[in-house]
Design a protein that fits this description.
Nuclear Transport Factor 2, Chain: A, 118 residues, 5 helices, 4 strands, single chain, alpha+beta
Length: 118
Amino acid sequence: MVLSLTLAASGCGPPAADQVVRDFLEAWRTGDDAKAAGLTVEGDISAFRDGDTFIHPTRPSFTVGQADIRGEVAYVSFTLELEGGSREGTAVLRRQGRIWKVSLTGTMTAWAASEPPP
């Protein structure tokens, strides 16, 4: 128990939810599909390719907010700086053991719900 408290205090524990979102967005932005997939609940990003049309070609910068943790689920706001403006979204994460993972299903549902009208 002392060892786990020491590791947590020294920053050696698993990454925080907001860091997982940063790592995921950076991996997706740069085309590192294997790393991005490893940070997700689903473990596979091939079914979630809708974002590629603006993520890969423009390689947008992004900012990530703080996590709003509600039990085993965390919500992390983010902003993508796209050509022609910015787009805000919320990443939905689920805790698996001590590890936070991005739920692509939850995130895409939240993204669609926040879609600006045409």
